[in-house]
Amino acid sequence: MDGLLVNIKISVNEKIYLKDPESSALGKRILKHSIELIHAIGFENFNFKKLGNEIGSNESSIYRYFENKHKLLLYLTSWYWGWLEYKLVFSTNGISNTADKLVRAIEIICDVIQEDSRFSHINEVKLSQILISEYSKSYLTKEVDTENKEGYFSIYKRLIIRVKEMIENVNPTYQYPASLASSVVEGALHQHFFKRTFPLNYRLF
């Protein structure tokens, strides 16, 4: 089965980037080292000059792929949600019992992330830590309404819809499945943050 999944590609809205970073070795290095650098110094201290030094390339070469560091963060967060959706679909596909399927989906969403060898240029563990710390910076901007209309958050919303539908399959009369689905996904990030930041015997779920 693993052999069938070697060529899996996580698709990100093409409006987010100027040139697909998955299309070249340099683009993949940009993704790999941007994750490493943001994880190490935080998004606020991150810039393309520092990234250029890390990859041994001119700052201008990075601008050929991304308009600015905000768009790069949008790409990374979108990639993560797409990867999580792929994991969720693959792990629940063979489960016929609706309650068991929902439980498994929640486990996937809330679990501590392990590195996925199928994507050698993406460190999913460090990327998940970036999501935990920095995800809100991708949408708490003045441009969020325009970016939403452009479909920048479509992968995230698609994941929420999948979980919403699983909730409805368990209980069709539940009135707030979308709100609950969103709370599960967002709550998982928050709980991991609290566990890491305020580790006073804090138990995750």
Can you characterise this structure?
By secondary structure, the protein is mostly helical. It has a single domain, classed as Orthogonal Bundle (Tetracycline Repressor, domain 2), CATH 1.10.357.10. It has helices spanning 25-41, 48-55, 59-63, 69-92, 98-110, 124-134, 144-149, 154-170, 177-197. The chain is globular and about 55 Å long. It starts with 24 loop residues before the first helix and ends in an 8-residue tail after the last helix. The model is unreliable at 1-5 (pLDDT under 50).
CATH fold topology = Tetracycline Repressor, domain 2
The number of distinct structural domains comes to 1
The CATH superfamily appears as Tetracycline Repressor, domain 2
How many strands in all?
0
Structural class, by secondary structure, is mainly alpha
CATH class bucket: Mainly Alpha
Q: Characterize the main sheet.
A: none
Summarize the structure.
With 205 residues, this protein is mostly helical. It contains nine helices and no strands.
Helix/strand layout:
Layout (H helix, E strand, L loop, with lengths): L24 H17 L6 H8 L3 H5 L5 H24 L5 H13 L13 H11 L9 H6 L4 H17 L6 H21 L8
Features:
0% strand; Tetracycline Repressor, domain 2; 9 helices; mainly alpha
